[in-house]
Specification:
Jelly Rolls, disordered N terminus, 27 strands, Rossmann fold, 6-stranded mixed sheet, alpha+beta, single chain
Amino acid sequence: MNDISNTKDLTGRFAVLPPETQSMHLSDGIRLDADIYRPVGPGPYPVLLQRQAYGRRIACTICYAHPAWYASHGYIVVVQDIRGRGTSEGVFRPGENDIEDGAQAVEWAAALEGSTGDVGMYGFSYQSYNQLLAATGNSPSLKAIAPAMGPWDAGSTWAYENGALRMKQMVGWGIQITAEAARRAGDDEAYAALMAVSANLPVNGPIAAKPDILTKYRDYSHVMDWLETPADSDFWAKISPSTHAEKIKARKLPMLVIGGWFDTHLASTIKAWKELSYDDDGISRLIIGPWVHFPWVSKVGTVDFGPAAERDTDMEHIRFFDQALKHKSATELTSKPISFFDMGVKSWRDLESWPEDEQTFYLGSTGRAAIRDDDGTLSEQQGLLDASDYIVHDPWRPAPVTGGCYGVPAGPVDRRLTDERGDVLTFTTAPLQSSLTLAGEPVIEISATSDCPSFDLSCVLSTVTKDGRVLQISSGYAHYRDAGEGTYTLPLTTTCSTILAGEQLRLSIAASDYPAHPVNPGTGEDPVSTPKTKAVVTTICVSHGPSHSSTLRLPIAELSGVPS
């Protein structure tokens, strides 16, 4: 290798040349454009590739350092506009071309002048998704990936959640994608109209999940096709990295996987890690912070998680790629592959393996859990008496989303006003006598029946602080299409939070979280395509006690350093 030490500054970083734009042509003739950032000096250097769906000059800089910063650490950094985006040619159809396009882009980048031939990929959201798809294609030069907060199973953890359309996400993202396609086409009127509704989503029309504006401009994007595709369609498997899990896992690519407790793709992040991780290679890491989709900062919702939450994820990437692509030692990395931010004690917890211990809490009340927040209980002991609580779901005034992934603001916010609604059941523990650390996936089993053919359940797990605030730490939502009397199991999102002595745990249950998901009309018809005028009042009976127990199974971790 050439001596390039004289090109470094006093911090040991390289000077970086201005970006140059180069193009490649795919096998079908489509041109893709990329900006290339090079360190000063002949190299050779490994390549970091980011395939951008939102414009290569943006380059994920809403939560990553600029590509020039990454290049200054001794990498050729390539940021490419994917098919149909930025200045690249073609038509954008999510996931439909990313396997072949991504694999060809990897091999093109590996052959750039000054490259070692080894490529790593990085980026979040769609840029995470297309990394995983590229890894399934013929891309032998791909040696490491760093997917953050991106889709895994397009049907079950992106467009839908337990059979319920993720309406706010799909409509909001759909407007953004459609607007960019209109801009590329030179349709100023369409672009302006879509931009005008982007900050205040148009989900109050006759059919909330199918806004008129997306119908009007449907030819510009995939969005209406997706909204017309049911959750159980075979289509989703064709565009899902999860379909190729065994193939990706067999490559044993080192992975740096990053997620957020309040990110819409948290379930995808967890599933991807569980399905792709193998015997610890000493390199791969899973990091979950107390973050929304972006930015990755300490103040989230109404809670400041302190300086520890501002983790230096850029340097995490450099250390990871130095180890995976330059074969440097791992002296600066922890030996444990899983790192969770504990939202209760505001510090990081490093774990050797996924926590497996559980503790069961039983729901109980005298039947007024919807009216009084001191009536519904969570207890380790099963109650002696059978009782029932009722959720009366009025589609005219559905229970709203509060905090979490979809609220405004997103993240942990005080949800007391929502819990005080008469259509929200609350079940709360007594103040804890000693601290309890949750780490993993809570699971709810509810004994329920409805007077309508279908219903939805929105379940939120929160910490009740000593000063009375109710702050979400986990949630789940499900659409039950063929409802009948029985026990309904609902996994909540993975979490890590210590409930301190004197604090309480609360489970809140409603029949909606509008506009995160569409309101279930209660008629048995599809909430995605049914006009609001058809919706009926739905009454859901939640039973608990010895005859029909309803439970909350909590993932418990025995961790040191937790206040008693």
